[in-house]
Design a protein that fits this description.
By secondary structure, the chain is α/β, with parallel strands linked by helices. The protein contains 9 helices and 8 strands. Strand 4 and strand 5 form a beta hairpin. Helix 7 packs across helix 8. The protein binds 2'-deoxycytidine-5'-monophosphate (DC).
Amino acid sequence: MSGVPVLAIDGPSASGKGTVAERVARALGFHFLDSGALYRLTALAAMKAGVALDDEVGVAALAAALPATFRDGMVWLAGEDVTDAIRAEAVGEGASKVAALPAVRAALLDRQRAYRQPPGLVADGRDMGTVVFPDAETKVFLTASAEARAERRYKQLIEKGNSASLLALVADMQARDARDTARAVAPLKPAPDALLLDTTHMGIEAAVQAVLDHHRTQQGN
Ligand code: DC
C-alpha cells in the first residue's frame, strides 16, 4: 500500500492536531488514524486487566491483541463503549507511560500501517512522519506553547463539566512533553522534511488551510 498518499500530522498533546487532522481527512475524503487512541486503549486495557503500566511484556501482549473498534466517532473496547473513558486525564497519563515501552510500540506498528488504504490516509500522532510512515508525502509538525495548549485543554474540560486547574494543566503538559520527547524509542520530534506549524496564535480553520495548502504543494513536487 506504499503508493497510497499519507499526510502525517505530529505534535505534542493539545496542539490542536487531532481536530486539524480530522478536518483535513474530511476535506480530502481520506481515512483517519488517531494513533494516540491506540496508546490510550492499551493503557485502559492494562488498567482494567490489572497489568502494571511498566510491565513491558504484559502490556505489549495486550496491545498486540487489542479488541478495539472505531465506528462513527465512537471507540469500543471488547464491546464496551470507551469513547469518553479513553479521554480521561489518568488514561492519557497511562498512555504516555506505555508509549515509552519499545515492545508496545512494536506491537502497534502493523495495526497503524494497515490504515493506509485508498484513496489516502491522514495519520495523527507523535511519530507518524518519523517511524510509522517515513515515506509519507506530506508531513506537518504542529506546535503551540505549553500555556496555549493548557488553556485549550482547560476550556475543553470546563465545557464538559469537569473541574480543572490551569496551573496544574501547564505542569502536566510540560511533564508529558518531557517524557514524550526524552524517551529512547520514537521520541516526539519533527521529521527533517516536516513543515513546522506553530498554532499558538492560529485558529483551527487557518491551520487546516495551511496543511491543505502544504499538501497541494507537495503533490506538485
Ligand atoms: O495524542 P494523545 O494525547 O491521544 O496521545 C496519548 C499518548 O500516547 C501521548 O502521551 C503520547 C502517546 N503517543 C505516542 O507515543 N505515539 C503516537 N503516535 C501517539 C500517541
